Amino acid sequence: MTDALNPAALDQLFRNARTYNAFSGEIGDETLRQLYDLMKLGPTEANSTPARLVFVKSAEAKAKLGPALSEGNYAKTMAAPVTVIVGYDMRFHDKLPYLFPHVDAKSWFEGSPEERMYRVALRSSSLQGAYLIMAARALGLDTGPMSGFDNAKVDEAFFAGTTVKSNFLINLGHGDPASVYPRSPRLPFDEAARIE
Hints:
- By secondary structure, this protein is of the alpha+beta class.
- The chain has helices at residues 7-15, 29-39, 59-65, 71-79, 96-99, 106-109, 114-138, 151-158, 189-192, and strands spanning 23-24, 51-56, 82-89, 142-146, 164-175.
- Helix 2 (29-39) crosses helix 7.
- The longest helix is centred in the middle third of the chain and has 25 residues, at 114-138.
- The relative contact order is 0.22.
C-alpha cells in the first residue's frame, strides 16, 4: 500500500465531490452491503465500531423518518433513493470480546460514566459515518450528510427499546449538479495546521 491514488480517484473522493441537495436513481441492496463492507474496515477506538446504520429506503420507512426532519431537509430526504441514519450504540463495549479479543477491552468501559461512553460512541460513530461517505463516493454514489432533524423522534421511530441513538443522516443517490451551492472556502494550511 505504498502507491498514491491517481488524480482521477482523488478527484472522485475529494476534489470534485460535493454535498448534494437533490438525488435521483436507485440503489440496490447489494450496493448497500458493499458500502457497509467498505465502511466497516475504517479504524475506530479499540475497534469499538459503535455505528449502527438504518438504510431508510422503503416508503414505509420514509414515512417514519419524515416527521423528524426539519423543514429544509424534508423534501430532499423524501426524494433521495436512500437515507442512512448513522446511529451509535451506547453498549458498544458488549461486542469488544469479539471485536478486540487480544485484551479484556470490555472491562475498560464497564461501569464507566455515561459521559465517557457517549464520547467514545459519538466520536467513533462519526468517524464511521465519514468512512461511509468516502465509501459511497468510491462506489460512484453522491452524498448529502446533514443534521437538521429531531434526534429524539428518530430514536423513537427507529431505535425504541434499544441502546442505540441517532447521530446524523446521509442522503445517498446520484446527485443533481444543479443542487449544489458554489464550493465554500476552506482554511489554508497555515490557518488550520502547523508542523512541529
